[in-house]
């Protein structure tokens, strides 16, 4: 009997093996080609499928979730674009008032790298039953998918290729690269959303028209080699206007007086002077401060009132693109570009959801997972019974993706074996904490305000102390091990948020007498508005409706690469060139850099994306008045002289040569940044490197640490004694204690 069973099992194994071999043969492209005319072969049989994505990393991650019947290939980004060295848009004007409006025909070309790659993908597509377009879920991704189809269905010179049926192309969309999300997308394939493609195309054409029409004018009127852009010009305007606000600002002196008191239990706390004789007090000079200080030293102090209020503090919303960029700038010091590069890597590896979004929506399953995790990890009192929902600011319900969140909440940041590098781990921790915190219970506590009166010399001074006590940490528990974060309402918005906790105020009661301990007066001056950082500039652009999630980082990079602004100590300063270009545009093309006009254009592009408008009329409505105005300005605008930065020194070469007159040493901007030159150029060809000193000594040789730039305009810190000393660092070195002491001594003197 056992022998019979063994024989049956052997027979079954051989039969299974033969079936597997047969299936592999059927699935092979050779078999399909050989049998494509056979009546019994049809598309319902298992076949090979091609999946096209943008990057190799994304392809590898997808490949882990798909079986052998799927071939995942990367297009390496955009496969077609407008040409680099010409406008590449054919413009047809209406022949008369009754004729159709303006028409714009983009002339797309392939780059050299993409040509060979797309030929490889084309060969694979011809052998595949289906071609899945799995590009990113936004306008850029939709446009890439459309360009891929256009290329795959175009004839290649010198080759015989079959037209691939449009029915073979399927668009799949997922907002996270996980097995469940990918399988769900494959189960519900769709078609390319041409409304999104046209919105992207309209943006590309408008930006190309502005750039290629305005740039030659800037060459003639300002300086050769310049360029202008629709969104970038508005960003430069913000930086220039802020610099002028700072220059026009007149600081005002004021004084803060703090009095240290104690109650009958000798518990000491500080109160701040705020009133005199029931009127708000503003001390504007040292003499007034001295009079108040004399009175307060001998005053009799009484508690006038104690006000206690319960408070609840909700966590911040989960990250959108802009708030992630702002938080990374505030917390880690990253540029928007670097943040997006790291976020792209996390998304493509399957750790976070899609990172270009202006939505704060969260998937139902993600909310359930968060609630389970919080309850298990922190206790039921920290979990919400009803998920906390956030109102998204996005005007586009069709494009309102999820907020940025971890794909798996139980993949905690400090897990071993995540396989992330240092930067990826830091950003992932921020995303994970922000998501988990947004579904945790509110922080609860009591805020206290103590009013104190001090009577002296016939005057009654009003003083107060404020503080708060947290009774239940709630979502703050996630952050308590970290250094104090900026307050949720801080002007440096959307860093990692945490409550600002004042010193603890001892228990006192109304009418209680207090004793004087000490007093401190401090002179201060009002400060001008701060220069823009990455975080604050992105926030302002977003608030004004300028740009979209995919444009913030490129805009900030572009205005630096074109040397219209420079970043010093992580703050944007306009260059003389940037000021000149901004002023020329403000005088002659006010609408191009008008905040409302630029925001309206963004709204028009959004309307195209949801099918409310056609893209050709939108571009035409912009172009017609722009073209007419361009012709007028070309004839009437005056040439603008770019200002130069003076060092205050005479030209060293003129001085040493005994030339008359002696030129001035000035700062010019070249291809690779600032350099020193002579004001008498070309009579004097003096040229030297511009040294941006930091006031820090080199840790290797004791020379000066200076801010330098690579050829790609990336900042780094190096030694002034290079090449003798090779010290270099991407981050600003920390000054030694002795240097800090010397600096303080200098300020005191």
Automatic annotation (TrEMBL):
The catalytic site is made up of 354
Q: Which Pfam families match?
A: Topoisom_bac (PF01131), Toprim (PF01751), Zn_ribbon_Top1 (PF01396)
What are the boundaries of the region Interaction with DNA? Answer: 227-232
Source superkingdom: Bacteria
InterPro entries tied to this protein: Topo_IA, Topo_IA_2, Topo_IA_AS, Topo_IA_cen, Topo_IA_cen_sub1, Topo_IA_cen_sub2, Topo_IA_cen_sub3, Topo_IA_core_domain
Its recorded reaction(s) are: ATP-independent breakage of single-stranded DNA, followed by passage and rejoining
User: Which of UniProt's keywords are assigned here?
Assistant: DNA-binding, Isomerase, Magnesium, Metal-binding, Topoisomerase, Zinc, Zinc-finger
Extract one GO molecular function annotation from the record: zinc ion binding
Question: Which SMART domains does its entry note?
Answer: TOP1Ac (SM00437), TOP1Bc (SM00436), TOPRIM (SM00493)
**Span of domain Toprim:** 48-177
Q: Which GO terms describe its biological process?
A: DNA topological change
- EC no.? 5.6.2.1
According to the entry, every stretch annotated as the Topo IA-type catalytic domain falls at 193-630
User: Which EC main class describes this enzyme?
Assistant: isomerase
Q: Name one GO cellular component term.
A: chromosome
- UniProt site (Interaction with DNA): 78, 203-204, 207, 212, 219, 356, 562
Subunit info? Monomer.
Family note = Belongs to the type IA topoisomerase family.
**Its job:** Releases the supercoiling and torsional tension of DNA, which is introduced during the DNA replication and transcription, by transiently cleaving and rejoining one strand of the DNA duplex. Introduces a single-strand break via transesterification at a target site in duplex DNA. The scissile phosphodiester is attacked by the catalytic tyrosine of the enzyme, resulting in the formation of a DNA-(5'-phosphotyrosyl)-enzyme intermediate and the expulsion of a 3'-OH DNA strand. The free DNA strand then undergoes passage around the unbroken strand, thus removing DNA supercoils.
Record's protein name = DNA topoisomerase 1
Which organism was this protein described from?
A: Candidatus Amesbacteria bacterium GW2011_GWA2_47_11
